[in-house]
Amino acid sequence: MTTYVVGLVIIGGLTSAGVYLLLERHLTRMLLGLLLISNAINLLLLAAGGPTGNPPVYGRTSGDQTATADPLAQGLILTAIVITMGVAAFVLALTYRSYRLNTMEEVTNDPEDARVSQMTGTEVGEEIEGRLEPDPAIDTDLPDELDALPGHQGSR
């Protein structure tokens, strides 16, 4: 089996450009990087699928081919294309929603994450312990208006 270097270089170029775009902070560039990586993987599956040959249908021949082509690689590529389009639609919807809420598409650092990362371990533990203790004015075992089920007479 011969390996074509040009195809592998194209796959490597697509993968490296996709990784570079995925590391950007803009959502549309992340989407383009995701699409480039998925196309590189599809080309890699096609290259790894083996040589061309006869169609995988009994009794069919294609020119002077002696071997039968493997249909698994093409089936995997079709499945990967469908999955990629679903993920791309989801990321595009996230991008649109983020732009509508923030009027920008750049992903920034979360201020709450920055605050927690600046805290020491004991400060985080104290903050969590303070949250775990229930407030007796709010948390009671007595039935509330929202606890009653429709048709249930309870303690009225």
UniProtKB/TrEMBL annotation:
Topology relative to the membrane: Multi-pass membrane protein
Pfam family, one: Oxidored_q2
Entry's transmembrane regions: 6-23, 30-52, 72-94
Any one GO CC term of the record: plasma membrane
Region annotation (Disordered) ranges: 111-156
Highest taxon listed in the record's lineage: Bacteria
Biased composition (Acidic residues): 136-147
Keyword field: Cell membrane, Membrane, Transmembrane, Transmembrane helix
Main localisation: membrane
Keyword Transmembrane: yes
Compartment(s) of residence: Cell membrane
Keyword Membrane attached: yes
Protein family according to the UniProt entry: Belongs to the CPA3 antiporters (TC 2.A.63) subunit C family.
PANTHER family, per the entry: ANTIPORTER SUBUNIT MNHC2-RELATED
Protein name: Cation:proton antiporter
